[in-house]
Design brief:
alpha/beta; six-stranded mixed beta sheet; 10 helices; binds D-malate; binds manganese (II) ion; binds zinc ion
């Protein structure tokens, strides 16, 4: 399995076009939150479609088109929220011959205006994002609802599954007869292959860049994961007001501050935690902060 960060900023990116704050002026560039995942290194899925999607696709060698004229390794998009910074990139995929988008019913319903726009340009197939899902390239997905915050444009909408965390892992090896026969070909090769496959299959990654609270359910969901990409929107609950004078606590916006998340790491000693979706008020740096382009797995 492979996991690559395509963007590590919250909505607006860094620098934000109309912001002259210290972080934006310092020029630490971050594109908006998105991650590419693949079970086999050939079939890729995007977690969320950021407004920066074109630069993200063109800047990632694994996602470039070919060998066919309109062939792309991008098999689909998994949406974890209906927020604009996670979805309007779909409009930039309108040249697609066909496109598969997975989302919960609440998210798909809220996106009716965007779906109508896209439908005029491309053959988009909207599929339910269930609790468990198998994707091309041997990628397994588990989904957990972590929040009920609606986007501002759908503030009155009904439904429950607004904000999801995803856990991705490769399908178990030797699940088909052909690979079982290949494995039997040579005892030595078999030993090598089983070792390789064991380390390969044990990898798992959790994406949770919009996380309002760290519940017991979330603890169970991430148990044993190798890598977790967490909500790094704000370092503290009062960051937005302190930095910009604008009202709004992190909690009121559905984003658990980094300081609070760090208090939970000790329960998961085998897991590496990193933060993504940094707001441009957040100048956090260090080994637990994701950067654009890094491979998490
Ligand atoms: C969020 O992450 O809370 C949203 O993307 C905020 C927004 O841009 O409206
Ligand atoms: Mn956001
Ligand atoms: Zn700024």
């Amino acid at each position: 399995m492979r996991v690559r960060v395509l963007g590590s900023a919250a909505g607006g990116g860094c620098p934000q076009w109309n912001c002259a704050c210290a972080t934006c002026r310092r020029g630490h560039h971050r594109l908006q939150d998105s991650v590419a995942v693949s079970g086999d290194g050939r079939a890729w899925y995007l977690i969320n479609a950021s407004p920066d999607i074109r630069a993200q696709l063109l800047g990632t060698p694994e996602l470039r088109p070919g060998p066919g004229l309109r062939e792309t390794p991008v098999r689909g998009v998994l949406l974890t929220t209906a927020e604009l910074d996670h979805t309007i990139g779909l409009l930039s995929l309108r040249e697609a011959v066909s496109l598969v988008v997975y989302a919960t019913t609440a998210v798909t319903t809220a996106l009716a205006p965007l779906r109508a726009l896209l439908a005029a340009y491309s053959n988009v197939e909207w599929r339910e994002l269930p609790a468990e899902l198998d994707l091309d390239g041997g990628l397994k997905v588990r989904r957990l609802t972590v929040g009920a915050k609606r986007p501002r444009y759908a503030a009155e909408a009904s439904g429950d599954d607004w904000v999801s965390a995803l856990r991705l892992s490769p399908a178990p090896p030797n699940s088909d007869r052909r690979s079982a026969q290949r494995t039997d070909a040579s005892a030595v090769a078999r030993g090598d292959r089983i070792r390789t496959q064991r380390s390969y299959t044990n990898r798992s990654f959790v994406y949770a860049t919009c996380l309002p609270a760290w519940t017991e359910e979330f603890h169970r969901f991430i148990a044993g994961a190798d890598e977790v990409l967490l909500d790094g929107t704000f370092q503290t609950d009062d960051e937005l007001t302190r930095m910009t004078g604008r009202p709004g606590s992190a909690a009121s916006m559905g984003h658990l501050p980094m300081a609070e998340s760090r208090g939970h790491f000790a329960r998961h000693p085998g897991t590496r935690f990193r933060f993504g979706h940094l707001n441009n008020t957040n100048d956090a740096a260090g080994p637990d902060v994701a950067e654009d382009g890094i491979e998490l797995i």
